[in-house]
Amino acid sequence: MQPVLEILGHEVRSYVLINHILGLVIPGILYLIFLRKYSMKRGVEINWPQFLIGLVVIIITGRYFARGIFELMYTGNLGSLSGYRLGEGSIMFGGFLGVAVSVGLITHLRKRNTLFWLDVTSIWLAFAIGIRKIGCFLTGCCRGTETVLPWGVVFPGSTVPVHPLQLYESIFGFAIGVFLWRQFMRGDKPDGAGFFLFFSLFSLLRLVTLPIREIPPGAHYVALGPIAFLVLAVAAGAVCLWLIKREEEQVA
Questions:
Q1: Which tens digit of pLDDT belongs to each residue from 126-185?
Q2: Which residue, among 224, 197, 173, 174, has the nearest Cα to 69 in the 3D structure?
């Protein structure tokens, strides 16, 4: 599918434009707007030069995790560095894991509030889902299985209507992003609860949509998907509830 656009005399695939450019820039802008407002509300001072350096490291780490897990699933190995280019396939969930790991390591080494920064990062990740999945829809990747529902989509090269799974996930991303933004600004939840709620719900979404997700031929470790998503959903949900309960006990 992959529509090609011409911008300033250069051809750009819609997948690259939306997933790797707009899918990074727009959530990034929303992330910075939220960070500025939320940090002022919380009285947290931001060292912007150090923050921007850390942000670049986090983006690169997330990209390599996303691409590395893609290589692992479809080739059985981590591939070579030459394959890690924009426009190449990636696994969004792997990217999120990479972002979470790098945020945790950087904030721990810098002796910052890790849970605060994970919460802020969840805003970025949520809106990234919303935008990047539109790119997947236009490309025709990450589609669903056959359906008789009236909103089934027939992609080019096929005659069978399938679930527009990409749009389901896009709606989820925008919805959870708005929800978390409002919850954080209300300030009635402990640090970390928002991030682990996001991670739990996203894992649950991936779990319940597995039966209607088209699995490309040649994918490795597919059988581990339900187990992995279930464990992540339960574990992240448990941490979220524990943080809330701990906060309530401290207040009492």
A1: 999 999 999 888 888 889 999 999 999 998 888 999 999 999 999 999 999 999 999 999
A2: 224
Task: Show Cβ contacts of residue 39 under 8 Å, excluding neighbours closer than 6 positions.
Answer: 45, 46
What is the rounded distance in angstroms from the CA atom of residue 90 to the CA atom of residue 9? 27
What is d(CA 37, CA 155) in angstroms, rounded to the nearest whole number? 41
Which pTM does this prediction carry? 0.90
Integer Cα distance of 19 and 4 in angstroms = 14
Q: Judge contact between 58 and 31, C-beta under 8 A.
A: no
Q: Are strands 4-7 and 10-13 parallel, antiparallel or unpaired?
A: antiparallel
Q: pLDDT value at position 8?
A: 54
Give the number of other Cβ atoms within 10 Å of residue 107's Cβ: 18
CA 180, CA 61: separation in Å to the nearest integer? 24
Q: What is the pLDDT of residues 28-81, one digit of tens each?
A: 999 999 999 999 999 999 999 999 999 999 988 988 888 888 888 777 777 665
Cβ atoms of residues 162 and 144 within 8 Å: yes
Residue reference for tokens 């490291």? 57
Report pLDDT for 13: 65
State the Cα–Cα distance between residues 83 and 89, nearest whole angstrom. 9
Q: What confidence tens digit (pLDDT) does each residue in 105-130 have? A: 999 999 999 999 999 999 999 999 99
b/e 160-169 (16+ beta carbons within 10 angstroms → b): ebbbbbbbeb
DSSP string of 40-77, one letter each residue: HHHT----HHHHHHHHHHHHHHHHHHHHHHHHHHHHSS
